[in-house]
Automatic annotation (TrEMBL), chains A, B:
Residues 4-134 form the VOC domain. This is Methylmalonyl-CoA/ethylmalonyl-CoA epimerase. Pfam families: Glyoxalase_4. NCBIfam families: metmalonyl_epim. Its EC number is 5.1.99.1. GO terms for molecular function: methylmalonyl-CoA epimerase activity. It comes from the Bacteria. Belongs to the methylmalonyl-CoA epimerase family.
Length: 134, 134
């Protein structure tokens, strides 16, 4: 079912410092920061030849990544995003298999403007997994 | 400098269960388990169209991922591996920039039979980074 690894999201406490690490230390191509107030994050995209790293930092008072950074104040990998062809079919498959879809269990529009699901880390070997309709 | 994301390594306490999650629940193509005694892990490769996930579990009494799993008993993303064209040049660049190369600071042969470096998470936004000569 899953296709490409769309991105690896890394939550960071200092977006400017993390961007400099990827741009200057590792020599990667990075985007300008993009505020996504409806998702509670500011994002910088690190463009690699085959996929993206997304550096994310909290935006606003109720960021969904605030609790992650409280537990991991230096930052770390927050989630992996895999592409799927049909998000509704993916949601049904997950539920039929007993895997927990976060939120109300239905796809919602994600940070790229496409429908996504987030899946419970305890059902995916300790990793928060996002599925995005490609 | 960095090129492709070669793989995302996920440390897991139960390799069979994690393999089943990726194969059966997520519908991905997975390899047979491969023991790498010189690296202290057993690995399953999850083949995606653009990159790989490597599921790793401890092998032997002195596995380098044992302490990670002691802190994160359900598993989680252990490291990201980026490809570089010249591992010796990468090592020099990291040291010149003040980034800590783990071990004795020199490239060694990694799990794929190619020279690699591991870089200190505190110098890379909280993420353990591996560089592998492509």
């Amino acid at each position: 079912m899953i296709g490409r690894l769309n991105h690896v999201a890394i939550a960071v406490p200092d977006l400017g410092a993390a961007t400099a690490i990827y741009r200057d230390r590792l020599g990667a191509t990075v985007s300008a920061p993009l505020d996504l107030p409806e998702h509670g994050v500011t994002t910088v995209f690190v463009e690699l030849p085959n996929t993206k790293i997304e550096l994310i930092t909290p935006l606003g008072d109720a960021s969904p990544i605030a609790s992650f950074l409280a537990r991991s104040p230096e930052g770390g990998v927050h989630h992996l995003c895999f592409e799927v062809a049909d998000i509704d079919a993916a949601a049904e498959r997950m539920k039929a298999d007993g895997a927990r879809v976060l939120g109300d269990g239905r796809p919602r529009i994600g940070a790229h403007g496409k429908p996504v699901l987030f899946l419970h880390p305890k059902d995916f070997a300790g990793t928060l997994v996002e599925l995005e309709e490609a």
